[in-house]
Amino acid sequence: MAKKTVVIDDISGDEIPDGQARNLVIGLDGQWYELDVSADTDARVREYIDECVTDARKIDAPTPPKAARPKRDYDVPTVRKWAKEQGFEVTQRGVLPEEVVAAWRADQATQGATAVPIKEVPAEPQDNAEDTRAAVLT
In the chain, how many domains are there? Predict the structure, then answer.
């Protein structure tokens, strides 16, 4: 039994004869749309869009904003130093391998510490103290 695929014009709703359907791709407000249309509908849409953009300025497509870097819950230099002391091969720069971070967290857990960064913050001024900064857990 033979099967027939029927393509319907997405704008007019009319059936498009075999082999005459066109895909019309339209972008608006950063969103792209694809329509199945007949040659007649394609011509009408293009004519309408031409009228709309006659006085418009052409611009480059805007680039989407870059994704924010995820916040780390650990101090990279501290973990890097620990990893070297434990025999892990780590580079001086760049992202730490997940296995290194996981091993560091496991080590911290066995020592009773929490896997949070240590940040230096100003301490209360002290009259006799030379160093007025202290390391605290955050």
Answer: 2
**Mean pLDDT, the chain, as a whole number?**
81
Q: What is the pLDDT of residues 30-52, one digit of tens each?
A: 788 999 999 999 999 999 999 99
Residue whose entry in the numeric block shows the structure tokens 């791709």: 25
* pLDDT value, residue 113: 56
- 1 lies in some domain: no
Answer yes or no: are the C-beta atoms of 68 and 38 closer than 8 Å.
no
Q: Which among 38, 1, 45, 43 has a CA at the least distance from the CA of 19?
A: 38
Which residues constitute the domain of residue 103? 76-137
The bridge status of strand 15-16 relative to strand 7-8 is antiparallel
More confident residue, 23 or 67: 23
State yes or no: pLDDT of 68 exceeds 90: no
In this structure, are 43 and 11 located in the same domain? yes
Task: Indicate whether 80 and 48 sit together in one domain.
Answer: no
Could you tell me if 39 and 83 lie in one domain?
no
